[in-house]
Amino acid sequence: MIIPRRNTRSRHHRITMKSIFLVGLSFFSFHTLIFHRYIRIGISVIEQDGTIRPLFSSSDNHPNKYFCASMNASSIDGSIIGESVFHQWKYIDETIEREFPNSKVSGGIFLYPRQASILTHLIKCIHAGLGDRRKMITVCETGYGAGHSMALFQEASTFIGPVRVISFDKFDRPYQLRIWHHFNKTISASPIRQPQNDDDHNRKKLFDFVEGDSCKTVPNHLPSFQCDILHGSSLCPTDNIDLVENSRCGVLLTSTAMNSLNDRQVYFGPNAQWRRLRERNCISNITCFQEDGELSLLRDFIFAKEGSSQTGKFCVAVTTGRCQRDKLDSEIMSEKCTTDIDQLLIQLDLNKVCTQYQIETPL
């Protein structure tokens, strides 16, 4: 009697196809989960053609290829911004929704994904210029909001190095200090975020805040800090000017994104802050970008309503030191200052950052 041979090839093929299906299902489930984590913050991020492509992607071998790619997507596979920042943003959203349902939320840097990605990249460039991964860089921000930018800047320390965040805000919304203390406790406790050497600079705590009107607190307190990055995002009509006037030369200036760079207050309206800083030669090497596509909001924010579409334009610049308060001209225009500015410009290489999304700076 001849016993038929089992079709091992067919069986192996079925097993392989099953494995592929399970892997594919897992991949889909993971990215669907991440999508819903992000969408809970209040943003619909599906592209117009219905596709979902990686968000905030980057790689060490091809950094510009990914972090400049389409931001109108939902997953974070291989991202320059890791998964934990989405967990932190999710915590912010759920905490406010659950415990402070009647509180208003202004929004956050998550509304401008390209800005979030580019700023993370520039932080990486600045830290690389220190020549020592263990050294700390300091971000000084006006306008804490709900803590989204604090979470973003601290996320950078996961793979870049220690990042210190100092926030100037009234902290008059009931959820703000609750969220601040949560991040201070949980993020600062992570060993990967702690400075590894013992010099005085790195013994400083990773988080700090100055409570009060930033129009008054920035001029009074900022000179005691050594900021590497300035992020203006408060309702104070002079916050960007105050940040620049109270900081050394060779510091990166950023501001919250706006629908138009000709807005009346922040960028280049007739009497806006960046225009005044430029006219006084307080800043140089201004480089501006635009978000691509629109993000449809699924909830109300103070400056944006449910159902509206959010777009943005934003700029970065370098402080020249010419407007620094309480400094003699000889100190401001010293050879060291010139060297610091030149070194920062080499590190940032702004002319090559996301050139396809750069836009002209208003005259």
Structural summary, described in words:
By secondary structure, this protein is α/β, with parallel strands linked by helices. The chain is globular, with a radius of gyration of 23 Å. It has a single domain, classed as Rossmann fold. The strands form two sheets. It has an eight-stranded mixed β-sheet with strand order 4-3-2-5-6-10-7-11, sandwiched between helices. Strands 1-8-9 form a three-stranded antiparallel β-sheet, with no helix packed on it. Helix content is 36%, strand content 14%. The chain has eleven helices and eleven strands. Helix 4 (113-128) packs parallel to helix 5, helix 7 (214-221) runs parallel beside helix 8 and helix 8 (239-245) packs parallel to helix 9 (273-279).
How would the blueprint of this fold be written?
Elements: H1 8-39, E1 43-44, H2 63-67, H3 83-99, H4 113-128, E2 137-142, H5 148-156, E3 163-169, H6 176-186, E4 207-211, H7 214-221, E5 229-232, H8 239-245, E6 252-255, H9 273-279, E7 283-290, E8 295-297, E9 309-310, E10 313-319, H10 329-332, H11 335-348, E11 358-359
Parallel strand pairs: 2-3, 2-5, 3-4, 5-6
Antiparallel strand pairs: 1-8, 6-10, 7-10, 7-11, 8-9
